[in-house]
Specification:
32% strand; globular; seven-stranded mixed beta sheet; alpha+beta; 7 strands
Length: 185
């Protein structure tokens, strides 16, 4: 049987302490995209964060996983569930792929694995993603995955000296199951 956490091109795994350089690179990539601007963090800060992630106990349905390319074993991104309401049955997720690894199908495969887990195993009913309105690549990815645009949060985030809109996209579990049927073992 193939691992639940493996797709054709990627596998999802826990974050390891040695992943710190990859996460430092992802932070720089997101800044260049215009999706994130934080004060610079030291290499030691990234080392400590990945070490904490590697040993952290899971907080219910909120967690982050590393995305590893199957063919090279290289860390290419991260995916996780960041907010979850088990009672109402929804969760919010996010994904990042390193600049050198974009447009290779990694994000789509990682998202499908995470969504399958959250819908089929954790019994959530709905997933939401909040995406900068200027991030056309991410909006297109989510449309291809089957997400539906549910709304626009105008001037929601202040970044790089100005306000930016966020697009709220959502997918229901039955929509996901129709578009992404469970693989046969």
């Amino acid at each position: 049987m193939t691992s639940f956490w493996r797709a054709e091109r990627i596998r999802l795994r826990g974050i390891e302490p040695d992943d710190w350089t990859g996460f430092m690179r992802f932070a720089e990539d997101e800044e260049h995209l215009g999706d994130l601007l934080n004060p610079p963090r030291s290499a030691e800060g990234f080392r400590l964060w990945t070490k904490e992630q590697a040993t952290a106990t899971r907080d219910g349905d909120c967690f982050q996983l590393a995305i590893e390319a199957v063919d090279t074993g290289e860390l290419v991104g991260a995916v996780g569930s960041y907010h979850a309401d088990a009672r109402a049955g929804w969760f919010e997720y996010g994904i990042t792929i390193g600049a050198d690894h974009r447009r290779k199908g990694y994000a789509a495969q990682a998202a499908v694995l995470l969504l399958r887990f959250m819908f089929a195993e954790r019994r959530h009913h709905k997933c939401e993603a909040r995406i900068f309105a200027h991030n056309e690549a991410s909006l297109a990815l989510h449309r291809r995955l089957g997400f539906v645009e549910e709304g626009l949060l105008r001037d929601r985030v202040f970044l790089a000296g100005r306000h930016h809109d966020l697009v709220v996209m959502g997918m229901l579990s039955d929509e996901f199951t129709r578009l992404h049927p469970l693989r046969e073992a």
